[in-house]
């Protein structure tokens, strides 16, 4: 009697897929012991064990995608069918053709799974206990009881193998061992099904989860390490790893289902993407809360780390989903929605909605890889730069529409107001705050983008405003206030970033101040022409000029105090400078009594100018000596004191030049020698003043430098110096 080859090793059937690959060795075909003609046997029509094993393995795999009732029913039917095949076959050999019967002897087995009938009843059926089989227990999800019975069958089978029961029938051992492996696979499939159903609409079955956790621990204790002899029956089934894989697949399915209806809308704009992420976040939040509050307690008794496993699984599934969405994100809004949801929604400590529930109990990898995050930030900043530039264009268009409508600026808190400053503040603050909520690096980048865009906007705004027809004192004051607000508040709120904009903002303020003063100059310039005339000696021609100055100063009351003071001082300097220019370029030259009267008139005008500007709040007190000094030189009766007045004038106004001294002396018409002495004395004073000015002692005050005197003065002085001594003595001897 020939026996089948002895089975020495079997592959480890950890999964149904591996079970498909396992093949049962076929027995050699047995020949009759007597006679030359072999007996003809009836072909066995029942499927072989290998065929059933593959069918059962496929059924175990289908358990991952079918309802539990279908899985367990097939498992139970397959188990019963396997047991029926392993019963002793009573049928004899088939009749030979023509009714002849072959010689008696062991029948050949053609299905590779049955033993010869002469061997009798084989070992005890696996999976069959008193009452319920292992398959029935698995179907009823009595996992621990099923495992205990299966473990007993495994132990008994190994004992039978060790006792030599299967020495004459190694194929029988292989069949029995394969049955055990199939039942292990069925038990594993049921574990996967329980995990898949845990977060489903049916709710959490705490008893089933506790049973699952206990059976995983029991299997680990039963099969701690691979056996030294390589016996596949005792190989660890690694159900903990399969449980974690099932948790991962469950999380992936849950994340994939969340927001599936909004997937098409996500490609249309930021609102669709926001809805998708909101639904995704809500689904993940509900699932994790359910895991923490219901699933984790059920597993904790057996020490299975359910919270950590589900947290890692959902984190990985969400990360994978975001990677897909990041590839399709377009536009500034969609990019920001992704970045914001990642950093501020999912990354929020209260993502789970309860203070006692936190998302991170251990370090998790970044939701988006550093390269993807960097790409999203780069794309976002590129779109943001274009968007901010467009926003500044819109702000300019709004301002232009107000100019066209000739809308007068409002007065808020006593100052002329334009929405320009508020619009820019809101634009910068909104984008910087949004970027800062994502990362400090993105906030710094956004600040630089805003600063650069504002720097380009200022000259455009300045040019458009000055070319419009809305240029007036109120609008100029409002623009000055807006630039001043931007300069002070932006630099204070964002130090280090907007410092480079201080110069452009100050330059814009200076341009608007200059234009404001040009309006005053245009109004009062004709009034200066009547100074130093015969009518001036007898009439108060200065009052209309000062009235216009007072009206101009009323607008400055609604300008930022610092800039209003600067403008008022500049107006003060302009009035004094233009007054002196008219004195040094007189339309008529006074002699005798008229000269003295003119000197007195200049003193009164100087007092009126000083009092008016002092009443308006001008702090340019340094201008108060200019007109009185010239008036004193013009009306001084003691010629020796003229040098003292020159000292006061040159000491107070170091920007005075030789031409100005000559023009002043020409008004007095002194003699040649006295003019020479005074001019030499003035030259030494001017040199000392020049040294002081070079050292910064002058304080940057400019008055006479901007006054141009006619070149005819030199000719006049030359004529005076070259005149006869008698005429020179007459003109310089007595008081005039």
From TrEMBL:
Keywords recorded for this protein, A-Z: Phosphoprotein
Residue segments, region Disordered: 1-132
Annotated GO CC locations: exocyst
A Pfam family that the UniProt record links to this protein: Sec6
Start-end of Polar residues biased regions: 24-37
GO biological-process terms attached to the record: exocyst localization; exocytosis
Biased composition (Basic and acidic residues): 14-23
GO MF annotation: an example: SNARE binding
Statement: the UniProt record of this protein carries the keyword Phosphoprotein: yes
Protease is among the record's keywords: no
Basic residues bias: start-end ranges: 77-86
PANTHER family attached to this UniProt entry: EXOCYST COMPLEX COMPONENT 3-LIKE PROTEIN 4 (PTHR21292:SF14), EXOCYST COMPLEX COMPONENT SEC6-RELATED (PTHR21292)
Family: Belongs to the SEC6 family.
Name this protein carries in UniProt: Exocyst complex component 3-like protein 4
Originating organism: Acinonyx jubatus
Gene it is expressed from: EXOC3L4
């Amino acid at each position: 009697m020939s026996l089948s080859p002895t089975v020495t090793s079997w592959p480890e059937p950890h999964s149904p897929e591996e079970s498909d690959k396992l093949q049962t060795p076929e027995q050699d075909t047995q020949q009759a012991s007597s006679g030359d003609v072999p007996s003809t046997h009836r072909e066995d029509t029942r499927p072989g064990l290998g065929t059933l094993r593959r069918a059962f393995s496929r059924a175990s795999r289908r358990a991952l995608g079918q309802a539990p009732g279908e899985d367990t029913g097939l498992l139970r039917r397959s188990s019963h069918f396997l047991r029926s095949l392993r019963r002793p076959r009573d049928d004899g050999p088939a009749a030979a053709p023509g009714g002849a019967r072959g010689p008696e002897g062991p029948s050949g087995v053609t299905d590779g799974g049955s033993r010869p009938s002469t061997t009798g009843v084989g070992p005890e059926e696996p999976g069959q206990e008193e009452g319920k089989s292992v398959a029935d227990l698995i179907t009823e999800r009595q996992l621990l009881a099923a495992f205990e019975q299966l473990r007993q069958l495994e132990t008994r089978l190994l004992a039978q193998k060790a006792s030599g029961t299967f020495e004459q029938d190694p194929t029988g051992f292989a069949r029995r061992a394969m049955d055990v492996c199939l039942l292990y696979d069925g038990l594993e499939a049921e574990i996967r099904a329980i995990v898949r159903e845990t977060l489903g609409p049916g709710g959490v079955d705490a008893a089933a989860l506790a049973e699952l956790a206990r059976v995983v621990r029991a299997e680990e204790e039963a099969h701690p390490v691979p056996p030294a002899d390589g016996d596949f029956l005792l190989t660890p089934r690694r159900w903990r790893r399969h449980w974690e894989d099932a948790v991962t697949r469950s999380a992936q399915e849950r994340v994939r289902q969340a927001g599936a209806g909004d997937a098409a809308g996500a490609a249309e704009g930021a609102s669709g993407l926001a809805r998708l992420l909101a639904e995704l976040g809500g689904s993940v939040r509900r699932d994790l809360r359910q895991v923490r509050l219901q699933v984790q307690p059920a597993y904790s008794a057996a020490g299975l780390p359910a919270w950590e496993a589900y947290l890692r699984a959902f984190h990985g599934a969400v990360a994978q989903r975001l990677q897909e969405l990041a590839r399709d994100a377009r536009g500034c809004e969609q990019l920001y929605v992704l970045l914001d949801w990642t950093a501020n929604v999912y990354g929020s400590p209260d993502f789970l909605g309860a203070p006692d529930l936190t998302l991170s109990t251990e370090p998790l990898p970044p939701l988006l890889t550093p390269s993807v995050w960097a790409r999203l930030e780069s794309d976002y900043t590129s779109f943001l730069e274009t968007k901010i530039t467009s926003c500044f264009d819109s702000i300019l268009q709004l301002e232009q529409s107000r100019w066209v409508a000739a809308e007068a600026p409002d007065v808020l808190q006593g100052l002329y107001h334009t929405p320009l400053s508020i619009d820019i503040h809101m634009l910068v603050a909104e984008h910087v705050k949004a970027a800062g909520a994502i990362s400090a690096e993105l906030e710094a980048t956004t600040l630089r983008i805003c600063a650069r865009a504002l720097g380009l906007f200022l000259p455009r705004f300045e040019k458009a405003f000055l070319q419009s027809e809305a240029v007036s004192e109120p609008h100029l004051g409002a623009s000055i206030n807006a630039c001043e607000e931007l300069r002070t508040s932006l630099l204070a709120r964002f130090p280090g970033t907007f410092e480079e904009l201080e110069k452009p903002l100050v330059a814009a303020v200076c341009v608007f101040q200059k234009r404001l003063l040009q309006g005053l100059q245009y109004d009062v310039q004709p009034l200066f022409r009547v100074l130093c005339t015969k009518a001036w000696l007898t009439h108060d021609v200065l009052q209309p000029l000062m009235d216009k100055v007072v009206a101009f100063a009323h607008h400055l009351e609604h300008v930022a105090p610092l800039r209003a003071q600067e403008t008022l001082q500049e107006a003060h300097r302009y009035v004094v400078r233009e007054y002196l220019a008219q004195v040094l370029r007189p339309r008529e030259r006074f002699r005798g009594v008229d000269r003295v009267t003119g000197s007195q008139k200049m003193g009164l005008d100087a007092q009126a100018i000083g009092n008016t500007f002092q009443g308006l709040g001008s702090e340019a007190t340094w201008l108060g000596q200019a007109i009185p000094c010239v008036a004193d030189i013009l009306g001084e009766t003691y010629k020796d004191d003229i040098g003292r007045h020159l000292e006061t004038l040159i000491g107070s106004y170091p920007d005075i030049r030789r031409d100005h001294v000559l023009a002043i002396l020409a008004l007095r018409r002194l003699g040649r020698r006295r003019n020479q002495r005074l001019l030499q004395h003035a030259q030494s004073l001017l040199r000392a003043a020049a040294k002081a000015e070079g050292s910064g002692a002058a304080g940057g005050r400019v008055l006479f430098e901007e006054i141009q005197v006619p070149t005819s003065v030199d000719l006049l002085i030359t004529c005076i110096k070259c005149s006869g001594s008698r005429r020179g003595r007459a003109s310089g001897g007595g008081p005039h």
